[in-house]
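Q: what sequence does this backbone want?
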């Protein structure tokens, strides 16, 4: 397969490619949700670019006539009809599996394409591109909430290359997406294994003892503690006692008045913000920086390789680990960092404890503030944890470190593949780059 640079494709109105006409979904009051036939709601569309009925948990009671009029089939395109956020209107997803009757709600629009001239996957990619989504937005009725009507969707100008070309382009783009999804699934599986191993070792206490047998079930000695029985030689401590002795080992970001957005520069010391906390090591390029002069004023909030970053307002307990990709970075005010003393605690063991706290809503139970939940540094410092022997921690940590090395490699590959896909997409959709 080769590529060539050439002119753009011919265009037509989208309605020319649609079998029959766009279909609006079914409205039912909330009390019907929970039984009957599967139904795709707005959230399913927003969360998934490719929709399969085995992902759908919402059910609704509907009769045969409603099912006949308001159901979708495989390879249908679904569009968000209205959204309070302008950019959300017109969001497109592709139905890849509908083995049973599946309905959709009234704020979605479904279309079935003429298969002899239109490849649904190609047009999913078109409407996911900046150009295609922009064409939809230009057709929306500009009211309090941007609204897409079926009649307007039919008028959207779309490219119409030969069906064979559409399929070739779809194959190229989907191969990139498939690899991205494979990497995401691998990372999810690695996280699940790490979590299961943590439970096995530090909740069930079935780590392998020196004789190679599961500790607790093989008669390993247990002692009482304030958090229940724990293995002999383990203890209960707090996060402040496993941080380094440096006075800023547990510190939050500077107040907003100390580091204003207006002071950000194009290069310098990177700024760690909330959206970098994905329960993974940091890998994304930073968007904002402060000058070296400004850094000297706020350097108490420095983050270095191996530090754990945690959110202390809004969504509590989101996490990230600083990597050696950068020499150092600075926190925003909504975040805090912990520098673990690795002679006392393995950072990956602590990281998994904090992930468990987040999923168990540990911080919410200790937070203050009704409008914006908040945990202060004292709450973080005083949080209790079980501290195994450092030998047991490090055995676990070495395994998790290998996992996160693979996770990080996958994340970087996802980032590269996404950049390739996003740069190819507009050129392939327009015909400026053609498949030979």
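A:
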């Amino acid at each position: 397969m080769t590529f060539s640079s050439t002119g753009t494709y011919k265009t037509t109105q989208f309605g020319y490619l649609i079998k029959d006409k766009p279909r609006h979904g079914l409205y039912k009051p909330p009390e019907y949700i929970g039984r009957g036939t599967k139904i795709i709601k707005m959230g399913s569309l927003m969360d998934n670019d490719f929709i399969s009925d085995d992902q759908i948990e919402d059910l609704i009671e509907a009769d045969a006539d409603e099912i006949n009029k308001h159901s979708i089939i495989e390879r249908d395109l679904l569009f968000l009809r209205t959204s309070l956020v302008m950019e959300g209107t017109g969001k497109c997803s592709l139905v890849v599996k509908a083995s049973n009757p599946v309905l959709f709600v009234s704020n979605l629009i479904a279309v079935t394409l003429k298969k002899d001239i239109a490849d649904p996957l190609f047009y999913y990619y078109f409407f996911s591109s900046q150009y295609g989504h922009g064409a939809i937005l230009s057709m929306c009725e500009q009211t309090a909430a941007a609204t897409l009507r079926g009649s307007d969707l039919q008028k959207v100008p779309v490219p119409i290359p030969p069906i064979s070309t559409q399929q070739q382009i779809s194959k190229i783009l989907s191969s990139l997406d498939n690899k991205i999804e494979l990497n995401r699934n691998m990372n999810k599986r690695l996280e699940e294994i790490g979590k299961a191993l943590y439970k096995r070792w530090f909740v069930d206490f079935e780590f392998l003892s020196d004789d190679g047998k599961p500790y607790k079930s093989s008669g390993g000695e247990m002692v009482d503690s304030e958090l229940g029985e724990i293995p002999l030689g383990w203890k209960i401590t707090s996060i402040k006692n496993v941080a380094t002795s440096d006075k800023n080992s547990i510190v939050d970001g500077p107040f907003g008045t100390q580091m204003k957005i207006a002071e950000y520069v194009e290069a310098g010391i990177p700024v760690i913000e909330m959206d970098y906390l994905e329960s993974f090591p940091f890998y994304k390029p930073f968007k904002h920086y402060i000058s070296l002069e400004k850094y000297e004023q706020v350097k108490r909030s420095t983050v270095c390789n191996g530090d754990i970053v945690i959110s202390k307002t809004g969504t509590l307990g989101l996490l990230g680990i600083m990597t050696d990709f950068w020499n150092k970075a600075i926190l925003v005010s909504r975040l805090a960092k912990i520098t673990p003393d690795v002679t006392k605690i393995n950072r990956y063991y602590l990281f998994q404890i904090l992930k468990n706290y987040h999923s168990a809503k540990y911080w919410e139970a200790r937070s203050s503030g009704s409008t914006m939940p908040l945990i202060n540094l004292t709450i973080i410092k005083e949080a209790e944890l079980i501290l195994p022997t450092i030998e047991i921690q490090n055995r676990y940590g070495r395994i998790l470190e290998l996992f996160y090395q693979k996770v990080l490699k996958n994340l970087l590959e996802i980032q590269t593949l996404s950049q390739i896909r996003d740069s190819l997409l507009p050129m392939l959709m327009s015909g400026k780059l053609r498949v030979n």
